[in-house]
Amino acid sequence: MAAKLKGLIDRTFLPGFAFKFLENKTIPERLLKGRTADVIVTMDSPPFYYRWFQGNPVVKQLERTILKFSGFKRVSATYIGPVINSTTVQRDKWTKQVVKLASKRAVG
To answer: Which positions fall inside the Flavodoxin-like fold domain (predicted)?
Structure first.
């Protein structure tokens, strides 16, 4: 995970906002219950290789230790890659894919 993203998460998902420790409880109360997340992962390796051979580490880390810990009920992932040596046509296709995903989730 990129250091800047990790820093943002560390400063955002704080006790009192994302979760709350309760007296005599081992597991904290999840304060972001019912929310959903769409994780967009860019990479220079083929997505199938990242998911099946490398074990999908960033998405698993985000999902298990941050998002679900805070109460998110559904986490989906979109994989974009390999970015290195990609064509303008391919990058435009990915951009449209992300715009479509974002427009489906837009509030309002």
So the answer is: 2-84
Q: What range does the domain containing 99 cover? A: 31-104
Tens digit of pLDDT for each residue in 19-62?
999 999 999 999 999 999 999 999 999 999 999 999 999 999 99
- 39 within domain boundaries: yes
What total of structural domains would you count in the chain? 1
Q: Do the beta carbons of residue 83 and residue 93 sit within 8 Å?
A: no
- Please tell me the distance from the alpha carbon of residue 77 to that of residue 42, in angstroms, as a whole number: 11
Confidence label for 96 from pLDDT (cuts 50, 70 and 90):
very high
In a domain, 8, yes or no: no
Question: What pLDDT is attached to residue 2?
Answer: 86
Residue 76 lies in a domain: yes
- AA identity, residue 65: T
Tokens of 32: 């972001």
